[in-house]
Amino acid sequence: MESVSVELEGELDLQGFLALNDEIRPGYQKIRGRVKIKSDADPDTLEKLRQAVNAHCPVLDIISNPTPLELELVHEAAEGAERLKSTG
User: Fold this and answer.
1) Is the pTM of this model over 0.90?
2) All domains of the chain, ordered by start, with CATH?
3) What share of the chain is helix, strand, coil (3-state, %, to 5)?
4) Residue 11's pLDDT is what?
5) CB distance 8 to 35 below 8 Å
6) How far is CA 16 from CA 19, 23, 58, 60, 68, in A?
7) Torsion over CA of 58, 60, 63 and 69, rounded to 10 degrees?
8) Are 85 and 75 in contact (CB under 8 A)?
9) Alpha-carbon gap, residue 43 to 7, rounded angstroms
10) How many CA atoms, within 13 angstroms, populate the side-chain half-sphere of residue 86?
């Protein structure tokens, strides 16, 4: 294998992102990807590689599956820090 590159692009409705329409989610409506491989390997070998990478790719996993998320907001005031925790 000589080189590998990955390109991702997504469709985003700015009405949701900018809070102009509460019925439209702020996230991506669709994500497309393209993996370019420069290699002398045969198509069967490349397909096996694709399957193995897809089975263990953390980026593909987080895009494809719901993942629990914990966000912590730390507000630092002059007197110290107040921690506000939210989950979503």
Assistant:
1) no
2) 3-87 (3.30.300.20)
3) 30, 40, 30
4) 96
5) no
6) 5, 7, 26, 24, 22
7) -10
8) no
9) 20
10) 4
